[in-house]
Amino acid sequence: MQDYQYDISVVVPLFNEEESLPELRAWIERVMNDNGFTYEIIFVNDGSTDGSWKVIEHFAETDEHVHGIKFRRNYGKSPALFCGFRRAAGRVVITMDADLQDSPDEIPELYRMVTEDGYDLVSGYKQKRYDPLSKTIPTKLFNATARKVSGIPNLHDFNCGLKAYRAEVVKNIEVYGEMHRYIPYLAKNAGFSRIGEKVVHHQARKFGKTKFGGLNRFVNGYLDLLSLWFLNSFGLKPMHVFGFLGSLMFFFGFVACIVVGANKLMHLANGVPAPLVTESPYFFIALTLMILGTQLFVAGFLGELISRNAAGRNDYQIEKEV
Ligand code: UDP
Ligand code: MG
Question: 3-class SS at 200?
């Protein structure tokens, strides 16, 4: 049994949320004390330009439960979570947005689901959401796609900020870029397959406004999902996809090439003037497919070279050694 310093680490990424922080902290502490948990709260200040860091510093001075991490600039929610995860020393790690939209009252049940029901990860599900329609409708589409691609059919709300993890999970996944939307998928790819869900209360934003407004997040969101799928399926064996596609294309190109050549020879053998090869569609098919096929093949070799040299090439998830 590993030793943990606390029952719970609460990780809160935040960007310009100074108005919410005092209420959030007081609420978390109330819940922790009512339930007798030992805990820490890690505020990760993601380059806020308001007074958030001053508030956190003040908390940390007066309260041993509060820790703060300050980024020099704004990196995004995923890097903030990553650094919070690295620092967390609790047996269960709970992530929560700083804007008071997620309720700390959910913590005890989330904790119970991880410690007693044996879940690796429990995701909140904002069944009733207090966000504008422009956010909720695209989100439905997003979740439907994510369920299909990730093969986690029971999650309704991948991107919910309120989640609970077994400590082992957060120490063994790498949340980067904007991958915080797909943490359950990252966890599943790392072999943590007991993924559950809990319906959670959601509130309208009290202060400030959302940091994730624009439409481009959906385009980027889908691209990220594609990358994850590719990395998980072929990241360790790029030749299997590129080599296969390349061979397939080259084969059909070669067949087309034979058709063109045979046609020419047949005409010549019969003593009739042969048409120019460039008049045949097979000529162009042969040309395109053979060039593309070769290039895909080369891409496969390059992919293999890169993955042989990647720092994480031998990072396998070892659960136990005796
Ligand atoms: N956040 C962050 N860095 C960013 C953007 C957002 O740490 O670059 C934090 C933000 O302060 C909040 C959480 O991520 O605590 C979720 O953001 P927000 O509430 O704006 O998203 P929404 O709930 O509207 O999806
Ligand atoms: Mg929010």
Answer: coil
Looking from the CA of residue 16, the nearest atom of ligand 1 is 11
Average pLDDT of the residues of the chain = 94
- Ligand 1: which of 85, 97, 206 to mutate, most ligand atoms within 8 Å of CB? 97
Which residue's CA is the nearest one to ligand 1's atom 13? Answer: 97
Distance separating the N- and C-terminal Cα atoms of the chain: 13
- The model's pLDDT over 93-134, given as tens digits with 9 standing for 90+, comes to 999 999 999 999 999 999 999 999 999 999 999 999 888 887
Amino acid, single-letter form, for residue 285: I
Give the pLDDT of residue 1: 59
> CA angle, corner 263, sides to 257 and 267, nearest 5?
150
Q: Which fold has domain 6-235?
A: Spore Coat Polysaccharide Biosynthesis Protein SpsA; Chain A (3.90.550)
Query: Is residue 27 within 8 Å of 104, Cβ to Cβ?
Result: yes
Q: How far is the CA of 205 from the centre of ligand 2 (A)?
A: 6
Which residues surround ligand 1 with Cβ inside 6 Å?
A: 13-15, 17, 46, 74, 76-77, 80, 97-99, 101, 161, 210-212
Please report, as a single letter, which amino acid is at residue 9.
S
Atom of ligand 1 nearest to the CA of 13: 7
CA-wise closest residue to 96 among 34, 9, 187, 195:
9
pTM of the model: 0.89
Say what the pLDDT of residue 247 is. 97
Cβ atoms of residues 188 and 85 within 8 Å: no
Low-confidence stretches of the chain (pLDDT beneath 70)? 1
User: At 58, which amino acid appears?
Assistant: H
Give the model's pLDDT for residue 311. Answer: 81
Element (H, E) at 198: strand 195-199
Please compute, for residue 243, the number of CA atoms within 13 A of its CA located in the half-sphere on the CB side. 10
Q: How far is the CA of 109 from the centre of ligand 1 (A)?
A: 24
